[in-house]
TrEMBL record:
Keywords of this entry: Cytoplasm, Methyltransferase, S-adenosyl-L-methionine, Transferase, tRNA processing
Enzyme Commission code(s) on record: 2.1.1.228
Protein name in UniProt: tRNA (guanine-N(1)-)-methyltransferase
Origin species: Bailinhaonella thermotolerans
GO molecular function: tRNA (guanine(37)-N1)-methyltransferase activity
Source taxonomy: Bacteria, Bacillati, Actinomycetota, Actinomycetes, Streptosporangiales
Subunit annotation: Homodimer.
Keyword Transferase: yes
Enzyme class: transferase
Subcellular location: Cytoplasm
Binding-site positions, S-adenosyl-L-methionine: G127, I151, G152, D153, Y154, V155, L156
Length: 261
């Protein structure tokens, strides 16, 4: 997968050299390219912001540097409104998906991570200040799919930290990135039996630590009983921490209901 990131703080992304994502890059599974938005300005101050039309606090990111940046990075792509018979320009085979992190976006979920992990090419546009001039997304939508995504109901100073979050969530799902190929299966929110359940507690050696024992069931070797115990723990934790997820699960079977009573 190729990922381009445009930001006025490309140095913010040094964590992408580390750990799982760093290894995926070193192994060629992930091709991450960082871009300084100011490289597409033309004034001596390399200005990327201006005062908002209509008044109000703060500054808005100017459209021109963003337009030039996206043209340079994704400019050879076929227009989305191209005629079926239209001869595409060079490099028209692949269209990136543009992701714009913003607290005004649709919530980014595990389902988005799974879907975006199947894309060959993502471009992330990191806004700062009060956001990017609205015409940038409007124009980009005529060229490529655009998703405005939020990582939660709080306001960050810019999209950079959100992009780190999304790239970690997406990157760990790429084939060959996780050491143990099945370790994403039991994730909280993973599609399947644990869908919309939070993972319960996990344990390792020693079997007793500071007077606390690992639950006997986990030492039993009975995988059916262990799976049921884990589901019970997940149900209890979800009911305690995210009751709205349990409410949204629909009718629980008798066994699940008893666990929560
Ligand atoms: Cl994606 N960006 C910013 N700036 N703040 C956020 C966010 C994104 N998601 C939640 N808060």
């Amino acid at each position: 997968m190729r990922i381009d990131i445009v930001s006025i703080f490309p140095e913010y992304f040094s964590p992408l050299d580390v750990s799982l994502i760093g290894k995926a890059r070193a192994r060629g599974i992930l091709d991450i390219r960082l871009h300084q938005l100011r490289d597409w300005t033309h004034d001596v101050h390399r200005t990327v912001d201006d005062t908002p039309y209509g008044g109000g606090p703060g500054m808005v990111m100017k459209p021109e540097p963003w337009g030039e940046a996206l043209d340079a990075i994704a400019g050879d792509v076929r227009r989305l409104d191209a005629e079926p018979g239209e001869v595409p320009g060079p490099g028209a085979e692949t269209v990136p998906t543009l992701i714009v992190p913003t607290p005004s976006g649709r919530p980014f979920t595990q389902a988005d991570a799974v879907r975006l992990a199947r894309e060959p090419w993502l471009v992330f546009a990191c806004g700062r200040y009060e956001g990017i001039d609205g015409r940038v997304v409007e124009h980009a939508r005529t060229r490529m799919p655009v998703e405005e995504l939020s990582i939660g109901d709080y306001v960050l100073a810019g999209g950079e930290a959100a992009v780190l979050v999304m790239i970690e969530a997406i990157g760990r799902l790429l084939p060959g990135v996780l050491g143990n190929a099945v370790s994403a299966v039991d994730d909280s929110f993973a599609p399947g039996a644990m869908e919309s359940l939070l993972e319960g507690p996990v344990y390792t050696k020693p079997p007793e630590w500071r007077g606390l024992r690992v639950p006997d069931v986990l030492l039993s070797g009975n995988h059916g009983v262990i799976a049921r115990w884990r589901r019970d723990q997940a149900l209890r934790r979800t009911a305690a921490n995210r009751p709205e997820l349990v409410a949204g699960m629909g009718a629980l079977d008798e066994r699940d209901r008893r666990v929560l009573d």
